[in-house]
């Protein structure tokens, strides 16, 4: 056995073990970390298959952004897993049966694709260019307009998300720090001059006088 098949089996075994631990780990943090390990193993398998772009994209997008966000959310929420696991074994047989059916369907669809006798012979010139460069040439020449449309849709989604988070509630009180910094004494206190007033004492009635 050469080096590449041995590495393929090692990374595949680690990926399967990590994927199994994702659904069996009791702690959500451990499950997220095992999912990161599974992504790394899948990226290594893609690298062995000479899919460099997919491997780098998997690490940068999922491991570098999505899973870090998952870890922050899980650690901040402090989810109680005991209540979530109630009734797990009651539904385990049905879930296992559904998973087995899905695995058989995926095997029936994917196994014919591994028939190497019907695979076309690769072009040597294309192999020298590399997958990333070939993918870039295809995207920015033949699929340029779909790429621009996808970029516009993502930009609209980003602007919509920002607009939704910046909505100001009417019942919430807001203090502008810039206005507080620019506050002056003349704007806060006003001195008013008033004429002094003296109250006269009440007249005291003398004896013999009628009020």
How would you characterize the overall build of this protein?
This protein has a domain at 1-84: Up-down Bundle (Four Helix Bundle (Hemerythrin (Met), subunit A)), CATH 1.20.120.1200. It is mainly α and 211 residues long. The chain is 65% helix and 0% strand. The chain contains ten helices and no strands. Helix 1 (3-24) packs antiparallel against helix 2 and helix 2 packs antiparallel against helix 3 (52-77). The N and C termini lie far apart (129 Å). It is elongated, with a radius of gyration of 36 Å.
Task: Name some characteristics of this structure.
211 residues, mainly alpha, Four Helix Bundle (Hemerythrin (Met), subunit A)
Write the CATH fold name of the domain at 1-84: Four Helix Bundle (Hemerythrin (Met), subunit A)
Number of strands: 0
Q: Catalogue the unreliable spans.
A: none
Shape descriptor reads elongated
Span from first to last CA? 129 Å
CATH architecture of the domain at 1-84: Up-down Bundle
Radius of gyration: 36 Å
The SSE order reads: HHHHHHHHHH
From the helix content, strand content and strand pairing, which structural class follows? Answer: mainly alpha
Fourth-level CATH superfamily of the domain at 1-84: NADH-ubiquinone/plastoquinone oxidoreductase chain 6, subunit NuoJ
Helix content: 55-70%
| Amount of beta strand | under 5%
Topology:
Layout: H1 3-24, H2 28-48, H3 52-77, H4 81-84, H5 92-110, H6 124-129, H7 131-139, H8 144-165, H9 177-181, H10 185-188
